[in-house]
Amino acid sequence: MSSPPTLQACKNCGGRAPIDVHFCPQCTKILSLGRHGDYFSFFGLPRKLNLDAADLEQRFRALSRQFHPDYFFNAEPAERRASLERSSYLNDGYRTLRQPIARAEYLLQLEGLAARGPEEAAKQVPPALLEEVFALNEELDEVRELRADGALAEEWTARLERARGPIENKRLEHEQQVESLSAQWDALLDAEASEADRRAVLVALRDRVLERNYINNLLAGIERELSS
Questions:
Q1: pLDDT value of position 109
Q2: Which residues contact 143 (CB under 8 A, 6 or more apart)?
Q3: pLDDT digits (tens, 9 = 90+) for 97-111
Q4: Which CATH homologous superfamily contains domain 7-98?
Q5: Which among 223, 18, 212, 224 is positioned nearest to 108, based on CA atoms?
Q6: SS3 letters for 170-194?
Q7: Do 181 and 201 meet the contact criterion of CB atoms below 8 Å apart?
């Protein structure tokens, strides 16, 4: 499990600054973004999964004002570039951290437990969903046959709606599991728990996120059939 860096260097004066500081304490110049840190540290937040949405937005707006390119219109080229870099990174970070699932996926990436590419993840059917996947595929095949034979729309749409029920229930169940694991992660972080304990929670969280993504793909398949 990776440890976040704690210091960054100022390219203007060579001084060192904490990773969550945006202006050099020695020369007061805006710091180049560089390759260190992450969205959490950029916002001055711990790597937790349950964040206060209002606090996150407040931090976002405060930093937006500090980095706004208008304030650096007459600055040196390096400072103007740094303001643009930090503004762009700030926007990307806010979009990621304000969404619970995107936040969880980002944490998994930081901790080295992200799913391997989306294409490979899509090919791997989570074992807990195999039965639902088989049942749904059979139902979709039968629905397509009904449509091809000229069945009334009411007949096959009713079957699709019934097929959607168990999948939707599974989605809600997984959302609850993600919420529970997120709370466990935050508690372990506060307690400075062992790496093994924290990793176990993250592995479970990764599996739930993969299953959730697959469930959403199944629901999207039903919606495509209904809309066609």
A1: 93
A2: 156, 159, 160, 225
A3: 999 999 999 999 999
A4: DnaJ domain (1.10.287.110)
A5: 212
A6: HHHHHHHHHHHHHHHHHHHHHCCCC
A7: yes
